[in-house]
Each structure stands twice: as C-alpha cells, then as structure tokens.
Predict the structure.
Amino acid sequence: MHNFKGAIFDMDGTLLDSMPVWDQLSQRFLGQYGVTVTDADYEAIEGTTQLQGAQYFIDTYPFLPFDAQGLVNGLDELITARYEALAQPKDGVLRFLDRLRENKVKMAIATLTARHHAEKALRDRGMLDYFDFMLTIEDIGVSKRRPDIYLRTAEKLGLAADECIVFEDAPYAGETAKRAGFRVCGMAEPAYAAGEAQLRAASDFFVERSFEELDGKI
C-alpha cells in the first residue's frame, strides 16, 4: 500500500453506481409541468444547494405551481425513490474500504449531493460507518470547480493534501483535486465518458470497473 493517511471519496459514480439516479432528473420532474430543461439550466444549477437550484427554476419558469421549497419536496421524493431503485455499491468497494480501515487510513466523503440523500443512500447499503464524516454542498457552498470541499475535508481529517488520495469520477473534479495538491484516483463512469481522457491525465491511479484493480497499487 502506498504511503498515505487519508482517503476522500466522492459518492455518486465513485462509491455508488448511482449516476442514473440523476439522469435528466430535473426534466423528469419538471416536464410534467411543461418545462423543457436546457443545457443552460443545468449549467446554472451546477454546484448549488437543492434550495438554490429550486429557486433558480422558480425564477426562470414562474408558471410553475409551487414555490422553491415545494419543488425541493417534489424532487426529494423522486430522488429517494430513484436511489432505492437504482443505486448499488461499486464493484469491490466494500472489500476496499475494509482494507483501508484495517490499515488505519482515515476516510471521509466530499459530495455535492444533499446530506440527507447521501447519508440515507450509504446507510441503506451498510457503508456509512466506514467514514469519519461527510462534507456536502450544503457545508461548502461552491462546486468542485474550486478545491474548497477537498481542502476542508483534509483539514478536518488533520492531514495535508499530499497525505490524501481523492477518489473521483468527474473529470473537472479530479483536475481540481490534483491542482490542489492531492493524489487522485479516477473512476471510469459512463456519464463522464467524453471526459475520461481528461480524468486519466489528472489521475495517479485509475479504476476501469472494480476497486479490486487497486490491489497492490493502493
């Protein structure tokens, strides 16, 4: 095992095979009210909290028959149902987490998913107790295009950036962590296939399909 003391994990697409939960999520919900969600809309809500994103849609589509909190509530029901139906642990992840714990590696989660969804998704799959703590978009307030969430997580672990490995499936997020001084383990993810070469270039390690590929490497 390489000499590192901390492991910082993204959740969706990294710990959980759960990117399908979010596939066209806003469109699935808002389409029934006559909204066609655009690429510009998705770009505008990237890195926002659920309530901030909901307020954006209410402001942009004022004919919607609810306020921002009502939209959050409706999306919450859909998100919960889709996590329960679609999300599964990534192949080999439980054995890998066991190995890190046996080696006294500190582990934490840095996710842009709302805390209540992330905690429930991991608790339901017996994974939450592996981690010392979780930081979310609600704690940080900016997207992973800035390194704040990784730096704050390392600080809470009591570690420097170069003592940690960040596990990420999003190319832009992997690049952010690398620029901030972290080692990076990239995770292949179909949702980000177009940027896979970008993620590989930022990664010290790379997982094609299963965490078992890291045996003898990390």
